[in-house]
């Protein structure tokens, strides 16, 4: 049967999007595959269609609970009943039942942490899987080394012998990240499909300010006059709360979103944004992965992103419908130092290495460091991983190297702020690609006309159409230079 016929039978499409068919053909041949497809290019179909052809369980390792739950809900809406998410949303009884009947499901979503649990591994080893998918595979490199080291253990669990093919999916990845993915997943000469990271319909802006409060004043004015839906990214939970509160007082339909909120509250806010009940979200980078909203018109970075990969992922949430969208990067003097501080603030330090060794010497569990308030849970995960991989002196060197890389990554983002050349070209080059064409109104440095992209808020005749945005921004930039 032709793949197009299967595509039409199960999904109602007559043609594949770029890259989908090549990826699927290699998966069906039993080949390991790394696929980089931009947001909105249909990455999930690359494992869903093989799942129907193989008719054996597909295991999808997914980084976020909200992401996997969203994917499960979407599949159920399309009448797929044999799909399950094995995660902490299940109570102990539900978890036991799910694991017992796991072999009956066609699509099994699981977190890296759940995958490492011994009873889950025993069940999976008793099953014949058709495919292992690592969704948002860039997290292996971006998160594994300094946030969730369990990502680095996925390859150990999967093994190399008698396993099905692995499909690693992401929207963006540098050459280094691609190497990390291949290495840590123990992939066997994977076929690689690398789509251009460029999104021509996302127009890149940047604005410079003397002080951080000036940025907030600008956001208040801008959001009150221009149309969403939009996302405003900040680097602190308190900032999301205060800024969203000010916008609400100004009559803007918005909500705060950050990792410290209750998971159900986060899901509720996310769904409100998706269905249009909220026009704006003010969020930390905890928001966005797996948010399938087609018509996001603006992404504003109130704070400097911690690295170029995060920036690319976050602006990629705009314009999934292919229509013109705007990404504006705001900068005030000293933002880079704050970004560096945030980046390394929750890292283990030499004193933590000493304490860890002390607990071991007393035959006590080093994890007691968390309960005793000596270290955060995130920092301990990082410390514990490396203490079981390297000698103590090497761990100290590794932690120092990781901190240096974090600070260097912020400097790379600063190149977007400092450059007078095309922002799009610099961004694409960072990911090891070349820019073939520049769209009209490409970016701030190419003389973008904001008035052609931004529109005034609907149902508000008091605001003039923003055809003069370019002039106003140039005046602000001149005043801050």
Automatic annotation (TrEMBL):
Helicase C-terminal domain ranges (all copies): 215-370
Keyword terms, alphabetized: ATP-binding, DNA-binding, Helicase, Hydrolase, Nucleotide-binding
Gene Ontology, cellular component aspect: bacterial nucleoid; cytoplasm; replisome
Pfam families, per database record: DEAD, Helicase_C
Tagged with keyword 4Fe-4S: no
Keyword Transport: no
Listed Gene3D superfamilies: P-loop containing nucleotide triphosphate hydrolases
Protein name: ATP-dependent DNA helicase
């Amino acid at each position: 049967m032709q793949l197009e016929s299967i595509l039409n039978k199960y999904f109602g499409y007559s043609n594949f999007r770029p890259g989908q068919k090549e990826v699927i053909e290699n998966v069906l041949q039993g080949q390991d595959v790394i696929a980089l497809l931009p947001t909105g290019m249909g990455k999930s179909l690359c494992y869903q269609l093989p799942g129907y052809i193989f008719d054996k369980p597909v295991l999808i390792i997914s980084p976020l609970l909200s992401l996997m739950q969203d994917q499960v809900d979407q599949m159920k809406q399309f009448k797929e009943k044999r799909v399950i998410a094995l995660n902490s949303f299940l109570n102990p009884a539900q978890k036991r039942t799910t694991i017992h009947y796991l072999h009956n499901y066609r699509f099994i979503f699981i977190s890296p942490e759940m995958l490492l649990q011994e009873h889950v591994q025993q069940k999976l080893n008793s099953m014949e899987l058709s495919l292992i998918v690592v969704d948002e595979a860039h997290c292996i490199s971006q998160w594994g080394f300094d946030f969730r080291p369990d990502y680095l253990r996925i390859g150990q669990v999967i093994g190399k012998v008698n396993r099905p093919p692995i499909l690693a999916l992401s929207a963006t990845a540098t050459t280094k990240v691609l190497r990390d993915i291949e290495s840590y997943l123990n992939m066997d000469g994977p076929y690689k499909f690398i789509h251009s990271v460029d999104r021509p319909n996302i127009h890149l802006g940047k604005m410079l300010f003397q002080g951080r409060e000036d940025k907030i004043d600008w956001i208040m004015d801008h959001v009150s006059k221009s149309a969403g839906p939009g996302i405003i990214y900040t680097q602190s939970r308190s900032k999301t709360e205060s800024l969203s509160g000010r916008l609400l007082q100004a009559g803007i339909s918005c909500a705060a979103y950050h990792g410290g909120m209750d998971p159900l509250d986060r899901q509720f806010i996310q769904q409100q944004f998706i269905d249009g009940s909220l026009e704006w979200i003010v969020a930390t980078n905890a928001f966005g992965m797996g948010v399938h909203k087609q018509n996001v018109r603006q992404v504003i970075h109130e704070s400097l992103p911690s690295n170029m990969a995060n920036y690319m992922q976050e602006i990629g949430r705009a314009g999934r419908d292919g229509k013109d969208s705007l990404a504006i990067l705001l900068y005030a003097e000293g933002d880079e130092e704050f970004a560096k501080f945030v980046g390394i603030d929750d890292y283990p330090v030499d004193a933590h290495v000493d304490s860890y060794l002390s607990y071991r010497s007393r035959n006590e569990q080093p994890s007691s460091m968390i309960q005793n308030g000596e270290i955060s849970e995130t920092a301990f995960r990082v410390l514990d991983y490396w203490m079981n991989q390297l000698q103590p002196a090497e761990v100290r060197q590794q932690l120092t190297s990781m901190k240096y890389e974090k600070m260097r990554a912020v400097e790379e983002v600063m190149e977007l702020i400092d450059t007078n050349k095309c922002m799009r070209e610099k961004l694409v080059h960072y990911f090891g690609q070349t820019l073939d064409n520049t769209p009209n109104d490409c970016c701030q440095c190419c003389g973008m006309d904001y008035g052609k992209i931004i529109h005034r808020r609907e149902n508000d005749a008091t605001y003039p159409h923003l055809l003069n945005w370019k002039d106003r921004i140039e005046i602000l930039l001149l005043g801050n230079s």
